[in-house]
């Protein structure tokens, strides 16, 4: 599938989360909006920073809907990374090529235009003591994030490094 745009039907995401049992995006249809975050893998210092910032905002986000986090790490790495964190949203692993959830949402490789933002975020991660770990998944994989409406359509689509402030402007708009 190609890049998703506002108003497109959100592709289904269904699977067993590593931390909270089964998850099915369509179960939220008609009920709550869903903030869908696609990462790369937990060894990535940029992804570690994104996850840290999402954890800090999780309760605020979940007061207005649901959140799901999708990652390319394997189960062992993900379990170890999550073991000391109070994660209140499902984490689903899409760790095997061809990465079907990433494909369904049209998420490809980083764009060269993403490099300034990537370098800025990596520097911030390092300044907070976050270190790159094992490489997993597609090293060139771009992250992306989406807000899925109560009706199951895309309200917000962002391809590239997480810009949580921008996403939260849309999330808290209603």
Topology overview:
Blueprint: E1 14-17, E2 21-24, E3 33-38, H1 45-62, E4 65-71, H2 75-82, E5 91-93, H3 100-104, H4 115-127, E6 144-148, E7 154-159, H5 164-171
Parallel strand pairs: 3-4, 4-5
Antiparallel strand pairs: 1-2, 3-6, 6-7
Helix pairs in contact: 1-4
Characterization of this structure:
There is one protein chain. With 174 residues, this protein is α/β, with parallel strands linked by helices. The strands form 2 sheets. It has a 5-stranded mixed sheet with strand order 5-4-3-6-7, with helices on one face. The chain has a two-stranded antiparallel sheet with strand order 1-2. It has helices at residues 45-62, 75-82, 100-104, 115-127, 164-171, and strands at residues 14-17, 21-24, 33-38, 65-71, 91-93, 144-148, 154-159. It has a single domain, classed as Glutaredoxin (3-Layer(aba) Sandwich).
How would you spell out the order of helices and strands?
A: EEEHEHEHHEEH
Average pLDDT level:
95
Number of domains: 1
What percent of the residues sit in helical stretches (DSSP H or I)? 25-40%
Estimate what percentage of residues fall within beta strands.
15-25%
Per CATH, the class reads Alpha Beta
Brief account:
This protein is globular.
Keywords:
174 residues; alpha/beta; Glutaredoxin; five-stranded mixed beta sheet; two-stranded antiparallel ribbon; 5 helices; 7 strands; globular
């Amino acid at each position: 599938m190609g890049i998703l745009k506002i108003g497109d039907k959100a592709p289904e995401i269904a699977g067993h989360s590593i931390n909270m049992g089964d998850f099915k995006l369509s179960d939220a249809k008609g009920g709550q909006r869903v903030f869908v975050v696609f990462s790369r893998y937990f060894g990535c210092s940029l992804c570690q920073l994104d996850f840290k910032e999402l954890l800090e905002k999780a309760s605020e986000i979940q007061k207005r809907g649901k959140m799901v986090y999708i990652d390319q790490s394997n189960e062992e790495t993900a379990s170890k990374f999550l073991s000391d964190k109070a994660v209140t949203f499902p984490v689903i692993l899409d760790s095997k090529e061809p990465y079907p959830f990433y494909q369904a949402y049209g998420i490809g490789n980083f764009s060269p235009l993403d490099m300034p933002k990537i370098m800025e975020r990596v520097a911030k991660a390092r300044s907070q003591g976050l270190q790159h770990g094992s490489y997993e998944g597609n090293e060139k994989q771009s992250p992306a994030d989406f807000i899925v409406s109560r009706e199951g359509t895309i309200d917000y689509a962002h391809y590239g490094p997480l810009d949580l402030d921008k996403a939260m402007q849309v999330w808290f708009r209603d």
